[in-house]
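**Fold tokens**
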Amino acid sequence: MKPKIKMEENPPKRVLQFLRWFCREDYLEEIEGDLTEIFIRQYKRNPRKANWKFAWNVIKYLRPEFLKPLKDHYLMYKNYSQIMKLFMPIAFIVLFVMAILSLIPIKANKENSAEMIANVMAVKQGGLNDIVFSLQGLRGIYYISHITKNDLNADSLSRRLIGQTVKIYYAKPHFWALLSPTTNTIQITELRLGNEVIFSEFR
């Protein structure tokens, strides 16, 4: 749920509209809520600084996994000139970020993974058909990549895992984690329920 805030503490309207324009619906509420909470804390200390930091944090989410499909934008903006005016600068930035990130593969092995025990609160299908987990007491987006999930699906995992305690291995952050604001996106590399390995990228 988005925090209630005073009128003078509202994040910059145009930046917020920009976030809602490009961000997938299945991630938007959590991302917007987290960034708004950060904005409120910073606004109380330094209102001017809070505005540009909010804009910078929104820009950090211009990453492939958070972008709406192109067809959604065409439904929102039927006028071609509006589409081009809004989309072209964004497309350039996104392609640049994608090119950079493509050069930095995540090595899926135990040496490059951290371990934790957590209780599963929710499992759902996220952007790009990733499987996204909500874990009790933990903020952020924990996900199994659509590239490596094989035959797993969110519905079956939801029935099995909600309320269960699981062991998770997740990829340790590298340099590009600096681009993420407080809400992190964390790739799961192995998932265990008791002695059963439900999912693993380890070879």
